[in-house]
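Appendix B. Chain record.
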Amino acid sequence: MSINVKQLAAEKAVEYVVDGMKVGLGTGSTAYWAIRKLGERVQEGLKITAVATSVASEEQARELGIPLVGFGDIDGLDLTIDGADELNHDLELIKGGGGALLREKIVARGSKRMIVVADESKAVGTLGQFPLPVEIVPFAWEWTVADLAKLGCTVELRRSGEGLYKTDNGNYIADCRFGTIASASELAASLQNITGVVEHGLFIGIAALAIIGKQDGSIEIIERAHGE
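Structure tokens predicted for this chain:
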């Protein structure tokens, strides 16, 4: 029987959740399993409150009976569990394949600790094979896309059916193919200087711990050293 490595990693991450925590719920195929396991633990008596990074994750949490609160009702989170499209050993991430990168980054930055859950295919030596998602405003998007291309990437606006994909915030996603990202921090600074960019999918210095599920049933844990 094949192992669901995403489920393996996600359920391990949920072991870090204890009574009384305020938890951020990520978005995507691996975060789905974490939310499902949290729902089981809530049914067993775990006392937590949570916020979600997307409409889809919020709906899943409600269905499972996970207590949700508004962002105005709390001043921060103890822990966020979320997936990644790519991660390296410095715990630099590419996120946004599911289109929720802005909300995911807000929630992760508002957490004392972010745990990344992934399968081993997402662990890479150098970021960049996965197209970097960049959330941009619809107004004059053609100019923003042109500015992104000047950074040395091929840019494609994400589509959904016959039209352009829109995030939960009503923005577009520009998927930028760099192939190799030599310095994530330098690229992040360049992206932040482009007017029209709302947020980018590089998560640097945010994740504290990565839990990686492997096909042989083992789990690799990578922890970022304090001060990095």
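Further analysis of this model is presented in Appendix C.
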